[in-house]
């Protein structure tokens, strides 16, 4: 196929190039922050080269191209004749949640309006009715009502309006019929309460409907920011088991998605750790492949890793005893206290962490920063990058309150706990304990586990701690550990 030779020409060795400002960017990007045309090409690249089966198109706060379907079909028609959008591969928009994102609320309407338009482009291209977009992701879902509203908004007002009369003619007679007739809504659960009650919310939504299947998205990064690494993993695993039980109860296939990133704090989903991540979440259907995974690793390793994910079969998830939540309560309390002390330093370092995506700026509680226990903090990538840059990997926060027995008990549910802590300890800088006394226990833990700090990374983080550094130092440290955040 033609795109095989294209791969050899475009990326002989690496998928990233170094920008003049020392930020590593994908080979096809024009600047360090991806947006617009870059993301259209990125979608084609993910489909045609990496073997990705689905691209999330994030309308929630990003400068994305709303004509992505038209541009993909026009520019890369030869590929999409063979791999049909909406059947073999898919684009799935992530839309704003009007219940939370008031400034972006009307963008939900615009995104839903674009779905029939995309189907028109596909019909002209394929000569048959194909809906290249037929699902949307609803972030920050907290109730079945929010899912229902989006489902009904599309069905009754986007599709239903075609039967309204304009002057002397019905809309569908004038501008054509609208397709598809309905869409699937994928709830994204991000808060502790929503994650732990996700099966109940889904049950309420699915009751009385006759869907072929349902998908559900569990966040991993934001829960880690809010409640700490260990809580995020165990809450998601608790939810996954209950969703599995619901699937059997309703006899409706439910396919979970989990939003994993590269750092252990965000899921430790990197090519060399793919098999461990799959074992951690055996009944997950879809794993998110984020920028660092795609562009900060050897392309052959990336392709092989994606193949492993695509070829595996889902397995059963184990149950989580709610008794372990008592340990998590004290862990979260300590995590919150430590984070409060670190927050001013995180905000300061975050100013120097480069962005990979162009984001819109607007006002709101969740407006592209996060408010955690009263502290305004950057989003997950910059949050994680800032703490690693300070020599305090976020995986280590909250540990000081846990006994060895506590950690052993938690590891019964979080299988990769010791492995992830060992990784984080390699990038812990003991010098930070001089400023933050709660880190003395981490210094001790590092010694007890016989973990040697990565020397070059420690040198760079010491420079950052001193306050005398440039953005390039943050990027150099990220290059050593294999990810920005």
List the helices and strands and how they pair.
Blueprint: H1 2-10, E1 16-18, E2 24-26, H2 37-50, E3 54-58, H3 68-75, H4 77-82, E4 90-94, H5 105-126, E5 135-138, H6 144-159, E6 165-166, E7 169-170, H7 171-175, E8 184-189, H8 192-196, H9 198-206, E9 214-219, H10 221-227, H11 229-250, E10 254-259, H12 274-280, E11 286-287, H13 291-295, H14 299-311, H15 325-350, E12 370-372, E13 375-377, H16 380-389, H17 404-411, H18 417-425, H19 440-448, H20 455-466, H21 471-481
Parallel strand pairs: 3-4, 5-8, 8-9, 9-10, 10-11
Antiparallel strand pairs: 1-2, 6-7, 12-13
Helix pairs in contact: 5-6, 6-9, 9-11, 10-11, 15-16, 20-21
Short summary of the structure?
The chain contains 21 helices and 13 strands. The chain has 485 residues and is α/β, with parallel strands linked by helices. The protein has a domain at 335-481.
Biggest β-sheet: strands ordered side by side in the sheet? 5-8-9-10-11
Enumerate how many helices there are, as a single number.
21
Main beta-sheet strand count, sense and barrel state: 5 strands, parallel
Strand content: 5-15%
Shape estimate = globular
The radius of gyration computed from the alpha-carbon positions, rounded to a whole number of angstroms, is: 23 Å
Mean pLDDT: 90
Calculate the terminal CA-CA distance, rounded to whole Å.
35 Å
- Binned, the helix content reads 40-55%
* Poorly predicted runs: 1-24, 359-368
E-strand count: 13
Structural class: alpha/beta
Subunit structure: Homotetramer.
Organism: Thermococcus sibiricus (strain DSM 12597 / MM 739)
Enzyme class: lyase
Keywords: Carbon dioxide fixation, Lyase, Magnesium, Pyruvate
């Amino acid at each position: 196929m033609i795109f095989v030779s294209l791969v050899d020409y475009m990326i002989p060795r690496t998928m990233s190039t170094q920008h003049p400002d020392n930020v590593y960017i994908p080979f096809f990007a024009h600047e360090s922050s991806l947006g617009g045309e870059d993301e259209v090409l990125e979608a084609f690249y993910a489909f045609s080269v990496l073997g990705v089966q689905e691209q999330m198109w994030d309308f929630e706060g990003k400068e994305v191209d709303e004509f992505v379907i038209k541009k993909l079909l026009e520019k890369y028609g030869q590929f999409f004749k063979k791999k049909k959008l909406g059947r073999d591969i898919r684009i799935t928009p992530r839309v704003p949640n009007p219940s939370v994102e008031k400034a972006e609320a009307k963008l939900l309407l615009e995104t839903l309006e674009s779905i029939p338009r995309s189907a028109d482009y596909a019909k002209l291209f394929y000569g048959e009715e194909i809906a290249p977009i037929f699902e949307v992701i609803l972030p920050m879902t907290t109730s079945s009502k929010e899912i229902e509203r989006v489902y009904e908004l599309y069905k009754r007002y986007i599709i239903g309006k075609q039967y309204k009369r304009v002057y002397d003619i019905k809309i569908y007679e004038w501008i054509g019929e609208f397709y598809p007739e309905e869409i699937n809504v994928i709830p994204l659960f991000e808060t502790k309460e929503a994650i732990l009650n996700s099966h109940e919310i889904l049950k309420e939504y699915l009751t009385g409907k006759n869907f072929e299947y349902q998908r559900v998205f569990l966040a991993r990064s934001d829960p880690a920011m809010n409640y700490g690494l260990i809580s995020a993993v165990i809450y998601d695993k608790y939810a996954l088991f209950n969703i599995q039980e619901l699937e059997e109860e309703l006899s409706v296939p439910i396919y979970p998605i989990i939003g994993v990133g590269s750092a252990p704090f965000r899921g430790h989903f990197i090519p060399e750790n793919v098999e461990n991540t799959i074992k951690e979440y055996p009944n997950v259907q879809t794993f998110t492949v984020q920028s660092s995974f795609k562009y900060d690793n050897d392309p052959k390793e990336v392709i092989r890793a994606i193949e492993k994910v695509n070829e595996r079969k889902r397995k059963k998830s184990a149950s989580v005893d709610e008794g372990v939540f008592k340990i998590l309560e004290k862990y979260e309390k300590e995590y919150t206290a430590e984070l409060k002390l670190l927050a001013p330093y995180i905000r300061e370092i975050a100013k120097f962490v480069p962005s990979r995506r162009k984001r819109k700026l607007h006002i709101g509680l969740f407006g592209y920063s996060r408010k955690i226990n009263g502290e305004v903090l950057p989003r997950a990538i910059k949050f994680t990058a800032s703490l690693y840059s300070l020599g305090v990997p976020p995986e280590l926060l909250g540990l000081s309150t846990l006994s060895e027995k506590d950690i052993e008990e938690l590891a019964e549910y979080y299988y990769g706990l010791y492995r992830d802590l060992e990784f984080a300890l390699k990038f812990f800088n003991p010098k930070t304990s001089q400023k933050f006394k709660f880190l003395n226990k981490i210094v001790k833990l590092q010694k007890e586990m016989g973990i040697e700090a990565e020397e070059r990374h420690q040198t760079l983080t010491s420079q950052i701690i001193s306050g005398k550094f440039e953005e390039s130092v943050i990027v150099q440290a990220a290059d050593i550990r294999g990810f920005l955040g």
